[in-house]
Design goal:
With about 350 residues, the chain is α/β, with parallel strands linked by helices. About 30% of the residues lie in helices and about 25% in strands. It is elongated.
Length: about 350
């Protein structure tokens, strides 16, 4: 069991602390938070709160530190931790720019300490189901994939609304959905376009629509919105031979697969202004419906991999190359948005 500490005991810091209770590879040494109230809360829950960051860094029993602070502190803290001999997990987004990220990689290489980011959404059941269907080939050649999360509560919290702290939904939820899409569709992203949304906040984006064009011809649409009172499907994947629709994080939905391309039993739909045969439902005999698979996953596999990578037994799951690719793609999104959603070259 490796002893680890958490810097920042807010929402995600608390999540990591709770995770440790059931972990088979890490045990929590304690937390550090600049807010005395958060430190007191940790102590009330039986968790040691380090009185200072230096005391945490000087604790030789701690091998691993998880950083769960506002985004703009990730770089400074990660570098200090690695230089103090600690391996580091940063909450997402790993930092605010590719230049900063390269500095963090350089320190990781210099110190020989593991450095990675917590891309926990790779273990979401809805994503694993889509990935399973994609890889099965049951839909034929994939034409386009749509991934979206939509809510109506606006940007959460306080610091996420401010640019200086790395606020906005590109860095909050976009980083997850982009990472998932790049894990799903293999190949280079040749071009992209992005339009950010500003409804009540003009300092950071409250949502965005991102289109990715892959070298293999696949297209992807990623949407994050915080002012939607009715949500579109979480996933919609279209192939030459069928479509998959997943409605929510629970994985509700289905795949509809074409058995017979020629449909001779089409019954025209009567609309208020005429008939349509083209857009009429298919004869049920020509298609089949399959349920969304339930893929077993365990979020503890992330920490298991990190610990195995520290010991040199495995390669870390979330690699430096993947982290940089996501960061540079987000930077390209802001370039496109600044040009009114113009398509820009990427890889």
């Amino acid at each position: 069991m490796k002893r680890f500490a958490i810097i920042g005991y807010g929402g995600m810091g608390s999540w990591h602390a709770d995770m440790a209770k059931n972990s088979d590879v890490v045990t929590l040494a304690g937390i550090y938070d600049i807010n005395p109230a958060r430190a007191e809360l940790a102590e009330s829950r039986g968790i040691h709160a380090y009185p200072s960051l230096d005391e945490l860094l000087n604790d030789r029993t701690v091998e691993l530190v998880t950083i769960a602070t506002p985004n703009d502190f990730h770089k400074e803290l990660a570098i200090r931790c690695m230089e103090a001999g600690k391996n580091v997990i940063s909450e997402k987004p790993v930092t605010l720019s590719s230049a900063d990220l390269q500095e963090m990689f350089d320190v990781s290489k210099k110190t020989g300490k593991l450095f990675t980011v917590h891309q926990n959404r790779r273990w979401d059941g809805d994503f694993l189901a889509v990935k399973s269907i994609y890889e099965s080939g049951v839909l034929g050649k994939i034409l386009n994939v749509e991934s979206r999360v939509q809510g109506s509560h606006g940007i959460p919290g306080d610091w996420r609304k401010e640019k200086e702290h790395g606020g906005g939904m590109v860095l909050d939820w976009g980083v997850h959905l982009i990472d998932q899409m790049l894990q799903l569709i293999d190949g280079k992203v040749k071009r992209l376009s992005c339009v950010c949304e500003h409804i009540t906040n003009f300092e950071v984006d409250e949502g965005f629509k991102l289109d990715l064009y892959f070298e293999g011809g696949e297209r992807a649409r990623i949407e994050v919105e915080t002012n939607n009172f009715q949500s579109l499907p979480r996933w919609y994947m279209r192939g030459c031979d069928g479509t998959t629709k997943i409605d929510n994080f629970r994985g509700d939905g289905q795949s509809v697969i074409c058995n017979e391309r020629l449909d001779t039993g089409v019954v025209p739909v009567k609309t208020a202004a005429g008939l349509t045969k083209t857009m009429a439902p298919r004869n049920e005999k020509t298609v089949r419906t399959e349920p969304i698979p339930v893929i077993a996953s365990d979020v503890h596999d992330f920490y298991r991999n990190v610990c195995a990578a520290i010991d040199g037994k495995e390669t870390q799951i979330v690699t430096h190359e993947q982290m940089m690719r996501v960061m540079k793609l987000m930077e390209a999104m802001f370039v496109s948005d600044a040009k009114g959603g113009q398509i820009v070259d990427f890889e």
